[in-house]
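Tutorial, part two.
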Amino acid sequence: MKVYVSVDMEGVTGLTDPEEMHAGGRGYERGCELMTADANAVVAGVYEAGATDVVVNDAHGSTKNLRIDQLDPRASLIRGPGKPMRMAEGLTAGFDAACFAGYHARAGTRHGVLNHTWMGHEIQNVYLNGEICGEIRLVAGFAGFLGVPVALVTGDEAACAEAREVLGEVETVPVKKGIDRFAAQLLPPAVAHALIREAAARALNRLSDFRPYVVPPPFTLGVEWNSTAIAAGCSLIPGTRPAGPRHIEFTSEDFRDIMALLGVYAMIAGRVACDSGIYG
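Running the prediction step on this input gives:
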């Protein structure tokens, strides 16, 4: 049984501070260790339930966060920038299940720890076929396009609630309870990792209960930015159309285009934001 594990960082056990999310920030190195430990808990659980092949994708920021020297040796790791499918790099129709670890709630979610969608402040909202969309729905939609069900989501309470809203009775593990965007009540790592391991095994044992999350084509990606300059820059990409002063859209029959193009948009947005100084 082949299992895919996408690991983000904002929803990882013990983490609440933006400084912990990027290289050079206070607490980042420890954050990488905790991120790897969450991934290992998933790997251990699915192997207990009969997995034979596990691929882990580092899905956060630079995608150079997970510690390969600390990763469960039964798993392989995809890391490094330039991945066309970004948070879902390496996911194919050959997998039996997908698991999301360390995920967070979409932008604007009350009590969502480090809540955002794809970018920390440049993106106000992302839409998929006209409905608001966080990273959970986006990556689950890509998995569904490939026919792969999502079996497990771990993160803060708000992320787990979002996962159930999108996916139904998926297995979830809330490792922290948000108080505000940068504050939470945390489970100790030993407790959280035991819960993740148990839930991962349980998810694989009830895999027949899950169905792929299928978004009907054509797929329309909408992005509402915080800047007219970002929207104007992204609108130069062929096929991208303005839908408002700060809002763009793109439609495709292939969900791979949606995943890849959102990453390209983010690169443009990052460059524009860097050049915009105090105007953001």
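The two ends are 46 Å apart (CA to CA). In part three we will examine how such features are distributed along the chain.
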